[in-house]
Design brief:
By secondary structure, the chain is of the alpha+beta class. The protein is about 35% helix and about 15% strand. The radius of gyration is 22 Å and the shape is globular. The protein starts with a helix and ends with a strand.
Length: about 400
């Protein structure tokens, strides 16, 4: 393993008495801005050098390390749009909540693609949908890859935004492992975020946000300073740097693709995301696996997803394969495409009901399962029996208050 600049600095520090933060006084790797370290808020030493080398590796003009996860990077990118006079952003209704949340904070208008799902899996926008949305927007914001392992047409998106002279932003939080390939967000976007901790060996919250050119680097840097903590976590910073130094694991990539075919997984496009449709058996399968020490990434009430990385071991895939033989067979998909319809309700009274009692009513706030952090039912959409059941059975949810969903009790 190649040792990064930040880790080298930490390993070379001398034993000392701590009269500085943090309060645990244990010293070691968890230090603060000392004479030999650096300043994350305005890096000029080892952090800056590590960021510059990572930028070169990612094909960026400027890369900023993040210890607040990809969310800080998403908000910084949106701030850069605002700073450059952009007002409307074309995006998917199935984007991570940080995107719509950032638009709300910055008073940017969301121009949504149609909310299409195929057999319960959110769809990436078509070329026609990107073109239509961008007519009414100042920037295009894509997710690549998405949490279910699918990509938008990145080459077309780049061509379209260049033709329209509008910026392309990409939430690549789940695609850092692709920086070796032509599917990495940095090959196409004006600004993008890498969630290094998701698919590379970085500590949780370790991420990076990058700009392709100097024109976007300055406003992006302003955004980073506004939304990012000024207190560095050196262990996280060191792990981000070294994550992008981690070698590609072609062997586990090949094993993952073979595993997908062998166990009847969904034929998606990203080797790190093994998605198996268990439908009504999903919760029982999840419990069966956890009782035997195997924990999947998520169970969305229909699919179970197993998240891999270059650090995944072949023997762990073999164990999973053995255990899945004791589970019900994966279910066939229904090949049904569903387009979510919403109504514009404003000024109506809002109440909170258990999901099963909310069936047939209009949802007043996006509600979903976390992960994958996508809405099961959207604001303005009628709560279905299926959505209510999935929310009732989920362990981790968002958009609900004390297990109750916000619905309009009166509409204006």
């Amino acid at each position: 393993m190649i040792r990064g600049k930040i880790a080298t600095m930490l390993c070379g520090q001398k034993k000392h008495v701590s009269f500085h933060t943090p309060g645990h006084k244990k010293r070691g790797a968890d230090i603060t801005e000392l004479s030999y370290s650096d300043n994350l808020f305005s890096p000029h030493g080892v952090i800056r050098a590590a960021e510059e080398e990572t930028a070169e590796r990612l094909g960026a003009y400027r890369t900023f390390f993040l210890t607040d996860g990809s969310t800080a990077g998403v908000h910084a990118m949106l701030y850069a749009l605002k700073a450059r006079g952009k007002k409307r952003v074309a995006l998917s209704p199935y984007s991570h909540p940080s995107v719509s949340g950032g638009c709300k904070l910055l008073d940017l208008e969301c121009v949504y693609f149609p909310a299409r799902a195929y057999d319960g899996i959110p769809r990436q926008p078509s070329r026609e949908e990107m073109e239509e949305a961008l007519k009414n927007a100042d920037a295009l914001f894509l997710t690549s890859p998405d949490y279910y392992g699918y990509f938008p047409d990145l080459a077309f998106a780049r061509e379209l935004t260049l033709k329209e002279n509008k910026p392309l932003l990409i939430d690549g939080a789940h695609g850092s492992h692709l920086h070796f390939t032509d599917r990495h967000a940095g090959r196409y976007a004006d600004m993008w975020v890498d969630g290094a901790h998701k698919s590379l060996p970085a500590l949780t919250q370790g991420a990076a946000v990058s700009a392709k050119s100097g024109a976007w680097a300055d406003p992006l840097g302003e955004g980073v300073r506004l939304f990012h903590t000024s207190s560095p976590s050196y262990p996280i910073l060191a792990s981000v740097e070294e994550a992008f130094l981690y070698p590609r694991n072609a062997a586990i990539e090949a094993e993952a693709e073979a595993f997908k075919e062998r166990v009847g997984a969904v034929n998606n496009e990203d080797w790190t995301k093994i998605l198996i449709r268990y439908g009504g058996n999903a919760k029982a399968v999840e419990q069966f696996l956890e009782e035997r020490g195997v924990y999947p990434e998520f169970n969305d009430g229909n699919y179970i997803m197993f998240y891999l990385s270059p650090c995944t071991r072949g023997k762990d895939l073999k164990k999973l394969s053995r255990l899945l033989k004791g589970c019900p067979a994966p279910e066939e998909g229904s090949a049904e495409e569903r387009v979510s319809k919403t109504v514009n309700v404003s000024g109506g009274a809002v109440g909170y009901l258990p999901p099963k009692d909310a069936v047939g009513k209009i949802c007043a706030a996006d509600a979903g399962i976390f992960p994958p952090s996508l809405p099961v039912v959207r604001k303005g959409e009628t709560v279905s029996e299926e959505a209510a059941a999935r929310l009732e059975n989920a362990v981790h949810i968002f958009g609900l208050a004390d297990g109750k969903i916000a619905v309009y009790t009166e509409q204006k």
